[in-house]
């Protein structure tokens, strides 16, 4: 086929992907990542270049908990419920005396609380408590949420307790923490958590340029943020808006989601980084960001009734499925999702991070639930 033919609309398409097969393979990979640590937490990633698993990662283990609980219901496989509750108990065992959650993996020598990680584990404790009514999980969620509120500055930003492993201390993607506080407010009937969440989103929107691009929104390079952190920020703005009944937040999230959608490649992938003009700033794609944006686009279908988001999300999911290896004899690779595509790209190079598989599962379950 000529280059011209390949560029014509509709002339090039991937074969149909089996979403259920991909979902189950990702779940099994995450189970192996949990087993690799021997402690209940989930290994942060598998390093294919070194051939080894990293230490357990409290932050992402926390938000894998609701994914596994949902998958247990979706698949009827109760062992995933048991795995999720082991994760939640492990998180409670590790919670710091002040209520925060430590930065980094269990391999890290520094043991300090950090805002973002704490917010992500709140998702896990809330879902475990709602399932079991075990007061241990409720108490952990309350202590963590109280710590987050106490750590917040009056204008809504979190400037203290940033991760020592991130270049920037102040981040607009902390709206993902605001999302956790909003969920805590609803689950625990505590209005001040929602107030704190709204203040953080309001602060984040002050960082927004007229075209919807957010300042201070990357782990390392604020001029060229990852789609991963763009998606963190966008999802936080959207979900806080929905829970607070704030249509401005929802409309703003939709504006960002639309700007990102316009960068989608024909195969369904997104550039791994985007600049302040919403132009591609990398040739590789960030696999986690693809999955997260698929979630956001599907949530917008539900929130707004606008079905035009659906094909964009399905293309992203189809791309993710196309790069997942479900046949490898290597269980550390089979079913996992790489950090970048190609695997040598600039995010989590030659690694399979657990959060890529987590968001991939969430995106597929939304699509499969919608039929």
Automatic annotation (TrEMBL):
Pfam families: Beta-AFase-like_GH127_cat
Transmembrane segments: none
GO biological process terms, semicolon-separated: carbohydrate metabolic process
InterPro entries in UniProt: 6-hairpin_glycosidase_sf (IPR008928), Beta-AFase-like_GH127_cat (IPR012878)
Annotated Non-reducing end beta-L-arabinofuranosidase-like GH127 catalytic domain residues: 111-263
Protein name: Non-reducing end beta-L-arabinofuranosidase-like GH127 catalytic domain-containing protein
Gene source species: Rhodanobacter denitrificans
């Amino acid at each position: 086929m000529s280059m011209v033919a390949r560029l014509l609309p509709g002339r090039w398409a991937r074969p149909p992907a089996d979403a259920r097969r991909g979902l189950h393979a990702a779940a099994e990979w995450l189970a192996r990542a949990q087993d690799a640590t021997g402690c209940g937490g989930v290994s942060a990633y598998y390093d294919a270049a070194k051939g080894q698993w990293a230490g357990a990662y409290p932050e992402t283990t926390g938000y894998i908990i609701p994914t596994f609980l949902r998958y247990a219901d979706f698949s009827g496989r109760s062992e995933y419920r048991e795995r999720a509750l082991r994760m939640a108990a492990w998180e409670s065992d590790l919670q710091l005396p002040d209520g925060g959650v430590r930065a980094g993996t269990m391999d890290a020598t520094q043991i300090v609380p950090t805002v973002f990680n704490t917010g992500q584990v709140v998702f896990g404790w809330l879902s475990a408590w709602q399932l079991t009514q075990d007061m241990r999980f409720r108490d952990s969620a309350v202590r963590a949420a109280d710590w987050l509120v106490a750590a917040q500055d009056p204008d809504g930003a979190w400037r203290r307790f940033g991760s020592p492993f991130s270049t920037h201390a102040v981040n607009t993607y902390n709206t993902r923490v605001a999302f956790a506080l909003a969920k805590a407010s609803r689950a625990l009937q505590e209005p001040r958590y929602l107030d704190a969440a709204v203040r953080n989103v309001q602060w984040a929107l002050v960082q927004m340029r007229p075209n919807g691009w957010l300042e201070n929104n990357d782990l390392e390079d604020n001029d060229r943020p990852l789609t991963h952190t763009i998606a963190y920020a966008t999802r936080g703005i959207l979900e806080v808006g929905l829970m607070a009944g704030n249509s401005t937040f929802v409309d703003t999230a939709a504006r960002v989601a639309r700007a990102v959608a316009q960068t989608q490649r024909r195969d369904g992938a997104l550039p791994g980084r985007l600049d302040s003009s919403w132009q591609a700033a990398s040739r590789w794609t960030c696999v986690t960001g693809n999955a997260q944006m698929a979630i956001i686009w599907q949530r917008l279908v539900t929130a707004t009734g606008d079905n035009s988001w659906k094909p964009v999300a399905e293309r992203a999911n189809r791309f993710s499925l196309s790069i997942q290896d479900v046949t490898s004899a290597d269980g550390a690779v089979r079913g996992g999702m790489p950090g970048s595509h190609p695997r040598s790209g600039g995010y989590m190079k030659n690694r399979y991070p657990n959060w890529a598989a987590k968001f991939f599962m969430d995106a597929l379950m939304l699509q499969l639930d919608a039929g």
